[in-house]
Amino acid sequence: MEIIKGGVTAAKGYEAASTAAGIKYQDRTDMAMVYSRVPCVAAGTFTTNVVKAAPVKWDQQVVAGGAKAQAVIVNSGIANACTGAEGFGYCEDTAQAAAEALGISKDGVLIGSTGVIGRQIPIDKLTAGIRVLAKEKNDTLENGTAAAKAIMTTDTCEKELAVTFDAGGKTVTLGGMAKGSGMIHPNMCTMLSFITTDAVISKEALQKALSEDVQDTYNMISVDGDTSTNDTVILLANGLAENPEITEGSGDYESFKEALHMVNEYLAKKIAGDGEGATALFEVRAEGCESVQQAKTLAKSIVCSNLTKTAIAGHDANWGRILCAMGYSGAQFDPEKVDLFFESKAGRIQIIENGTAVDYSEAEATKILSEPEVAAIADVKMGDQTAVAWGCDLTHGYIEINADYRS
User: Fold this and answer.
1) 250 and 321, same domain (yes or no)
2) Cβ 394 vs Cβ 277: under 8 Å
3) What is the mean pLDDT of each run of 10 residues along the chain (407 residues)?
4) Domain total in the chain
5) In this structure, what are the phi and psi dihedrals at residue 400, rounded to the nearest 5 degrees?
6) CA 215, CA 391: separation in Å to the nearest integer?
7) Cβ contact 119:237 at 8 Å
């Protein structure tokens, strides 16, 4: 397994483009296209929010229908959520425009949108943007990065990664891009993630690998506890690596899953660390648990605690807030057996032993919690299962960004 430069254009046969369509933002790109020169097997996971945006409904239809996909059109600024039949119709118009511009079937076009809920997409600007994207797409790494930038809303940086691995003597590449900063509490920001691979892999294996890995990556992050109407993860495989087909029972399936996890975990952590107004990535590890589910429940409860997140922002080892968050999580444990540690590049310090505070240095704890990446490790001493969740600190910046988001 090797990390290489690039994102969605790193794998063979993929092209990307970006443009400033003027959908909501001015003086910046706000549309992106990812295109494969040949049709792809497609897999997807989507928001569990009952209120689903029109693009989510469209993509679910495409993925479930079994048609091969060849293009993804993404816009930022307007979410096309809560827009009724008109909004869904605009998805069909978008797919039709892409099909005409690229010479492909509209059933092979996937769509992603992120931004303000309740506003209709300016379809004329969108279709005009598609024509520009179709002309300007290419397979350079620079175009892949530009596409990752175009799908940002309140993000402060683009998010992309690519890796390679060997499958049957062939080099297979997996690359991805994502966006997300606010309304991040996936349960499958808005968080959008688009992953491309040149692997030859069955649709069943592709969907299974994605569905399982999402549970340990994107579904383990939270910025603000809000599950978006638009959360989408799309995985495309075009087969141009010409490896022996990967199926669920094949020897290369585990290698594929490992590569997919590396990309997804990296993108998920980048989303969590880029939370609106955040100054630190906050990692929580729940250890010594009876089951993975117990560990996940405890880790997510801690990482979602606003009081804990504000303590992290203040570099304050306020361990009582963490123990409190564990207690209301719904997971059963003995609080008198809990050990708690804080950790960062500046060191590691134990704060609690068997449920009570130890004689630790507040100055040392503050030093450890002042790093841009910090971790809390809670050991409940009940078993050998572990889970990790990621979030960020909560600062005044979050309020400032969201108080006037629509403007």
Assistant:
1) no
2) yes
3) 97 98 90 98 92 95 94 94 95 98 97 92 97 98 96 83 98 95 49 96 98 94 71 96 95 96 95 79 97 97 94 95 97 98 98 97 98 98 98 82 61
4) 2
5) -60, -40
6) 15
7) no
Predicted pLDDT of residue 332: 97
Do 287 and 248 have their domain in common? no
Instruction: Say which CATH number the domain at 78 has.
Output: 3.60.70.12
Same domain, 222 and 320: no
Q: For position 184, what pLDDT does the model report? A: 42
Question: What pLDDT shows up at residue 190?
Answer: 63
Q: Which domain holds residue 326?
A: 281-403
Residues labelled catalytic: 190
Strand partners, 388: 285
CB within 8 A of 102, min separation 6: which ones?
35, 70, 71, 134
Structure tokens at 225: 């506890």
Q: Which residues does 123 contact at the CB level (< 8 Å), separation at least 6?
A: 90, 93, 94
> Which pLDDT does position 189 carry in this prediction?
46
| pLDDT recorded at residue 223 | 63
Report which residue type is found at 83.
Answer: T
What's the pLDDT score for residue 228? Answer: 76
Task: Say whether both 122 and 242 belong to one domain.
Answer: yes
If asked whether residues 150 and 179 sit together in one domain, one would say: yes
Specify whether 192 is located in the same domain as 300.
no
Cα separation, 214 vs 154, whole angstroms? 23
Q: What local confidence, expressed as pLDDT, does residue 4 receive?
A: 98
Backbone torsion region of residue 221, taken as left when φ is above 0, otherwise alpha when ψ lies between -120 and 50, otherwise beta:
beta
Q: Are residues 208 and 352 in the same domain?
A: no
Closest CA to 238 of 276, 273, 214, 206: 206
At 323 the pLDDT is: 98
Residue 402: predicted pLDDT? 67
Closest alpha carbon to 165 in 10, 9, 38: 10
Domain boundary among 214, 247, 273: 273
Q: Which amino acid, one-letter code, is at 318?
A: N
- Which domain-ending residue is among 251, 273, 295? 273
Amino acid residing at 235: L
